[in-house]
Design a protein that fits this description.
Blueprint lengths: L2 H4 L4 H14 L9 E3 L6 E4 L4 E10 L11 H17 L4 E11 L5 H18 L2 E9 L5 E10 L15 E4 L5 H18 L11 H8 L5 H9 L6 E4 L4 H12 L2 E5 L7 H9 L4 H7 L6 E5 L4 H5 L5 E7 L5 E4 L5 E3 L12
Parallel strand pairs: 4-5, 9-12
Antiparallel strand pairs: 1-2, 2-3, 3-6, 4-6, 7-10, 7-11, 8-10, 9-11, 12-13
Helix pairs in contact: 3-4, 5-6, 5-9
The protein binds adenosine-5'-diphosphate and magnesium ion.
């Protein structure tokens, strides 16, 4: 046996993004119609008159959701939304989805029907059709994988690698709330586990819990962009966290970024809950994730087009790569922005 063959690298050494890079090194695009492969929110395929946009995401029980506090209907809804968000992040319209599930015999038909109620609710709200999928068994736990396919116009497609120095960095809504919603649900779970008699105390936390359990994708924003005749220079959705997404955008575009802490929108509910948990609100906002807002960059000449759009906040500027990715704090200090994006791969 050769030495190379014996080498064993732990996946945690590479991290999620390092692992994807390593596995996809040889994914050359040889088909003329493959416009964009690995590396963006969705793949882009040339269909002549229009572009087809394709993305897939898997949700794994115990990693992405906990059924102790995730209603099945919400789970189905979220599984669809996280995919549609990647299609919108290309400035395209989702049209169809497929849903693949793997489940153990712990789940009843009725439980699965509830998940599908959520899936159908998302299909109805976002105007997409469920057109297929796959069903199989799993020795343990529930897996849901959704693939979404959409359509977009060539001139309007927004990639991650096209931000330019001087562009303004915008975001479509507040961040950090979904993460704090999760902290809240986890806390109540632990309290419940140690004392099942105690009723969960989630009163007046609808906003945070809602952001975690029932996120929405920004279909409305894509429509507003079209109305305002605005084509962002680059765009990405916030799944892993603002900091991590800014890094992706900068790395791929070969630029740096200057983010104003005061420009990062945080809801009061999130700020108060962060303080309650003794967490720094801005860290929650930048590293929390699962907000499914859109981060996009615009040419400054388009400023007038976003000024009056509801829910658009300007949080920084694209700078030269050599200036790095920096955060200008409210206190007037300038720090390197840290991306704490990823979670460790668990053990079997
Ligand atoms: P997002 O957070 O937008 O869903 P990801 O971080 O999951 O994006 O993925 C980044 C890019 O890597 C995407 O283009 C995705 O299609 C690609 N990718 C992720 N995992 C794999 C894999 N196992 N094989 C090939 N491509 C992958
Ligand atoms: Mg994405």
């Amino acid at each position: 046996m050769s030495k190379d063959y014996q080498k064993r690298t732990d996946v945690n050494e590479l991290g999620e993004f390092g692992l994807i890079d390593r596995l996809t090194q040889k994914a050359d695009l040889t088909e003329k119609s493959s416009i964009k492969g690995v590396g963006d929110d969705a793949a882009v395929i040339d269909n002549g008159d229009y572009l087809t946009v394709l993305t897939t995401d898997m949700l794994v029980e115990g990693i992405h959701f906990d059924l102790m506090y995730t209603p099945l209907k919400h789970l189905g809804y979220k599984a669809v939304v996280v995919n549609l968000s990647d299609i919108y992040a290309m400035n395209a319209q989702p049209k169809q989805i497929t849903v693949s599930i793997a489940l153990s015999n712990r789940f009843s038909v009725e439980a699965l029907e509830e998940i599908y109620e959520g899936i159908y609710a998302a299909c109805k709200w976002y105007g997409v059709d469920l057109v297929g999928g796959d069903t199989t068994s799993s020795p343990k736990g529930l897996f849901i994988s959704v693939t979404a396919i959409g359509q977009g116009e060539r001139e309007k497609m927004t990639y991650r690698n096209t931000a330019k120095v001087g562009d303004l960095i915008c975001i479509t809504g507040d961040v950090g709330a979904a993460y704090l919603g999760l902290q809240l649900l986890e806390r109540e779970k632990q309290i419940y586990l140690s004392n099942p008699g105690v009723k969960p105390d989630l009163e007046e936390q609808d906003y945070l819990v809602g952001r975690q359990l029932k996120p929405e994708a920004r279909k409305d924003m894509i429509e507003l962009f079209a109305k305002a005749k605005l084509v962002p220079t680059a765009m990405i959705d916030v799944s892993d966290g603002v900091a991590s997404e800014i890094f992706h955008l900068c790395k791929q575009s070969g630029v740096g970024a200057f983010i104003e802490e005061s420009g990062v929108p945080i809801r009061t509910e999130a700020e108060l809950m962060a303080i309650k948990f003794k967490l720094d609100p801005i860290t929650c906002a930048l590293s929390g994730g699962e907000d499914y807002e859109l981060i996009f960059t615009i040419d400054p000449k388009d400023l007038d087009k976003v000024k009056y759009l509801p829910d658009v906040y300007i949080m920084g500027e694209i700078v030269d790569a050599k200036d790095g990715v920096k955060l200008h704090t409210k206190g007037g200090n300038i720090h390197e922005l840290k991306a704490q994006g990823w979670r460790h791969f668990g053990q079997d």
